Amino acid sequence: MVLASTVTVLGLVAGCAAPGPATGLRAGRLAAARQSPVTLTETGSTLLYPLLKLWASAYHQQHPQVAVSTAGTGSGAGIAAASAGQADLGASDAYLSSGDLVGNPSLLNIPLAISAEQVDYNVPGLSAGIHLKLTGTVLAGIYQGTITTWNAGPIARLNPGVHLPSTRIVPLHRAESSGDTFLFSSYLATGNAAWNTRIGYGTTVNWPAVAGARAETGNSGMVSGCRATRGCVAYIGISYLSQALADGLGEAQLANAAGHFELPTAGTLAAAAASFVSVLPANETISMVNGPAAAGYPIVNYEYAVVSTRQRNAARGDALRAFLHWAVTSGNAGQYLNQVRFQPLPGAARALAVTQIGKIR
Amino acid sequence: MTASTTGASPVAASPPPRRRGLVRRLATGTPRVIGLLMVVLVIASLAWGVAGVWIAAGHASAASGVVGTNAPLSFEARQMYQSLSDADVTATSAFLAGPDEPLAARTRYQDDIAQAGTDLSDLRAAASSGPAPGASLSAVATGLPVYTGYVAQAQSNDTLGYPLTGGSFMQVASEQMHLVLLPAARNVYTQVNRTLAARSAQASGLPWIAVAVACSVVLGIALLRVQRWLSRRTRRTVNYGLLGATLALLVATVWLLAAFLGVRGDLTRAEAHDLAPAESLAQASIAVQQARSDEVLNLISRSGATSFRGDFNVARKQAGPGAGSLLTSAADAARGTGAATPIAAAGRDATAWYAVSSRAFSLDLQASYAAETKLVIGSGAGSSAARFDQLEKDLSAAIGSGQAAFTAGTHGGSGALTGAAVAFGAAALLMVIGCTWGLSQRLAEYR
């Protein structure tokens, strides 16, 4: 299912001040940008989609001359649309591949916030408040069909004292090219050598044939699919955690590289990201999956805006720059991020993001 | 006014009164004419000698530059590109191989970086005196440590047990290579080659040689006419001084012409049969390096995108073999030379490699990454890596053969032209002596 939302009301000129990068613009061009209504189009990650909807609405209230049209189509589609110039902004849970960048050197991947991938399940009979402990190895076994029931030995050994049913496990995976799949399969690849060599990771992977396994579209499809399927296990973006919990799904604790089991909380996300700040490259392409932080959640990532440095015209470039600058500064406030359980960018990452945003023309 | 209206009037043909008076004062009587001729011939001989030495030395310097500086720089620029590209493919392949990274791959990467560094140093040294482009070389010099830094980060993260972070650093390194280093290295190669072509044209160009020959003809006619005039006035058949000067002029001119035509012939032949195929092969080598990069980048990206396959096919078509391709063009130009055999082998091995790559791209479309990885970076005889290595060996052998033949075929040219420059200088001195001695003897007879 493709999610879409467009803020369509284009108001009159307000005295909005495009922050940061707009300060260097010539007064006349800035004035023109302020007076011309602009609709920026965004498409891509369903994980980022809820936050972008919040941002689009808030930004339009503060800057009525700019509307942001959003659509949750999957990270792969977002990257493709931004590369082809069909969208001003492609949202992605995965950084651009070398191929995307070499093929289109004008593309940037700009981090907007810190996100995470949760693993949810629909296991009947579990006591309230129980968070099953799972590892990359066990999840790889489930998705390869070698662990087939919830009371199987590898799961039981990780969860001593927990009464596990013999219900058959139904693994769900994404049907479309997805950043969630990239993140989840990356975790499996680091935890299971066989998965790494035989299947690997990517926005699309060749899922092993497992009896009952199903493909769902988008994060909302994964939530509703899991809710409707007894015994399911699914990887779902953290922005859908509230919905997943409301639908009665369980939330797993995942093993990190240090062997600790962690839930995706504000503290574990921030800890995981902090360990990478000092080595962040200038283009902010970095995988934070299963990093070194002992108290870090293992499947943590930057949510990226994929944009071209070359916009169709100066007004659109100005508007896009101003919106992205707002997103990584004002938009990183708790009032927005807390609703989707994202974490703000670390200072160094924000500084690099602002530098990248300044390249948009 | 009369001269302009009557045209043929003797009055109009005579020099103006003031000029006529000057000539009469200078050339009144045979001794004075002989003296004047001696001064004029000595000055003309010296001027002819200086011009001839300058022209011959210029051509010698250009020919020497082509063989000794520009051609080697061109080879080094190509080698630098190839080393950089190979370093990236090797580092990426080794990283994808995981913890069992072969030592040979690490050594090959280090050798590539060292070779690129050596070539870069040589090219930068040459850039200070002109032939190599400074800005692009600076981009390589600045970007290379950044690249190796990212590769080191990738390797260290991998060793510490964070392969995905290592993988992302390897990707950033590869982007640095493809977006900064390789375009700059290619620009260096293009500009160095442009300089080589210009220098070669300068060495084998006709205009200045034609000027030297024209000067020789004019001076030779002047010498002959003076000798004829003298023989009529003095009733002496031969003036040995002037005859010697004429012979010296003739010998130097023939020497210059022979040396120039030899160099021109050598350069033209070597360019057509040795350098042109080597240049086509170098371009083919760059194209297949790009294609190999596309294949490896496609493996890393795992995005399901088809853009790499498209880029691969473009590079493949450009490299050949096939109508209008670089390999076919090189094969046509090198027919009958030592490079023909390795070029034919390169054509066969390229076709075999393309077939393996095509299978790898098909596996990628099926998201069969394990099989694709094995096929692309595996060490088996049928792997893409092995096929590509064989193709590179063929191309290197063919390029090396062309380079050696070019150097051998043009090596003596600059020496012959330098000899011609010396001959011109010596001839000018002999002519000064000959004219002075020959005309002084006639003058002495009037005292």
Report on the structure:
With about 350 residues, chain A is an alpha/beta fold. Chain A is built from 14 helices and 13 strands. Chain A folds into 2 domains: about 15-115 and about 300-355, 3-Layer(aba) Sandwich (D-Maltodextrin-Binding Protein, domain 2), CATH 3.40.190.10; about 115-275, Periplasmic binding protein-like II (D-Maltodextrin-Binding Protein, domain 2, 3-Layer(aba) Sandwich), CATH 3.40.190.10. With about 450 residues, chain B is an all-alpha fold. Chain B has one domain (about 40-445). The radius of gyration of chain B is 33 Å and the shape is elongated. The relative contact order of chain B is 0.13. Residues about 1-15 of chain B have low confidence and may be disordered. The interface of A and B includes residues 102, 103, 189 and 196 of A.
Structure summary:
The complex is a heterodimer of chains A (361) and B (447). Chain A is 36% helix and 19% strand.
What's the helix and strand layout?
The complex is a heterodimer of chains A (361) and B (447).
Chain A: E1 3-6, H1 27-35, E2 38-44, H2 49-62, E3 66-72, H3 75-83, E4 89-92, H4 98-103, E5 107-121, E6 133-134, H5 136-144, H6 153-158, E7 170-174, H7 179-191, H8 193-198, E8 214-216, H9 218-227, E9 232-237, H10 241-246, E10 250-251, E11 253-255, E12 261-262, H11 266-274, E13 300-308, H12 314-328, H13 334-340, H14 347-357
Parallel strand pairs in A: 2-3, 2-4, 6-11, 7-8, 7-9
Antiparallel strand pairs in A: 1-3, 4-13, 5-9, 5-10, 5-13, 11-12
Helix pairs in contact in A: 1-12, 2-13, 5-7, 12-14
Chain B: H1 2-6, H2 10-13, H3 17-27, H4 30-96, H5 103-127, H6 134-159, H7 163-204, H8 207-234, H9 240-301, H10 307-319, H11 326-333, H12 340-365, H13 369-377, H14 384-410, H15 413-444
Helix pairs in contact in B: 4-5, 4-7, 4-8, 4-9, 4-14, 4-15, 5-6, 6-7, 7-9, 8-9, 9-10, 9-11, 9-12, 9-14, 9-15, 11-12, 12-13, 12-14
